[in-house]
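Re: the 315-residue chain
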Amino acid sequence: MTYKKYKKRILFVGMPDMALICLGKLASKGINIVGVVPPPKYEPTYQLLVDTAQGLGYDIIDYNNSLNDNGFLQRIKNLNADLGVVASFNKKLPKELLQLTQDGFINLHPSKLPDYRGGNPYSHVIINGEEKSAITLHYMDEGFDTGDIISQYTFNLYLNETMGTLFHRTNQMCAAMLAEALDYYETHPFPRRPQPMDGNYKKAYTLSLQKRNIYIDWSKSAEEIERFIRALNPFIGALTLYNGTTLRINSAYVIREYHTYPPGTICDTNNSLKVATGDGILEIESIQYGALFISTGKDFIERINPKKGEILYSG
C-alpha cells in the first residue's frame, strides 16, 4: 500500500510514459490518489498503467468506449475527488467529466503555452529551431490546451536534442512540477492566469505517415532537414524513398558545402553516404532500409551499393 501523507483527494488520468513517471513520483510523496483512469482497454499501454497503479494500491476506474458513459461518470462522482490531474491522455475529456471534481482538472503540457498547443510539441520545437522550450501546468476547459495557466518552467534545448531526449526530459520535469504543485494545493488554491485566445501562436500539429508529412523535403537546407530528422527520432522517423523502398533516416551530419546537384541527389558514396539538399549536403549517419536492417551510412553503401547521381524522393 502507498503511504498517504496528504488529505486532498486526487483523481489521476493518464497514459504512459508520462503517467507512469508522474504516478511513481506522486506515490513516493504520499499524494492521496483516490482513483486512476487508464487509457481505453484497446490501447497497447492500458495494461502497463493498470498493473503499475494496482501495484501501488490504487483503484482503477476504467471505461469501455466513451468517457460519457453514465456508469463511468457515476463512479468518478462517487470518489468525491477534490481535483483531477491529467498526465498525457489521447482523449478529450468531456464537460460532464470536468465538472465531477470540486476544483476541476489540471493538465501537464510539454510546451510554453499558448505556443505549441497540440499533441506533439516535442517535434515542433526542434523543427522550428527553438533554443528553449518549457512545460506548463494549466487548468482544463473544453478546448485543447487552452485553460488558465498555473505555472511554467522554461529550459534550454540541447544542440543535438531529439524527440526522444526531449520526451524523456520533460516527463521527468512534469513529474517534479506536479508533485510540487499538489504539495502547494494541499493548503492553498492554485494561482491562475488566463491564456490569450487570439494571436498567431505556433502549432503542434500531428506528424504521421497517414498525413504524409513525415517525408524529408530535400529542397530545404541541410540544417532544416537535420533538425527534422532529430525531431522525429525515434518515435516517428523521417522518411524518404530510394528505388521504391522506404528509407528511415535516424541521424545525419550537416556539411556546409556549395554544390550544383538537384536536391535529393546522392552525391558521394566513398566511405560515406552524402545527399545534396537545397542548401548544403547531408551526410547520413544512421539509416533503416525498409524493414530489413538498420545500419550506418557506410554499411548501407556496402550492402545496397547505391550509385552517385541516384535520387532520394519525398513520398
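The mean pLDDT is 96.
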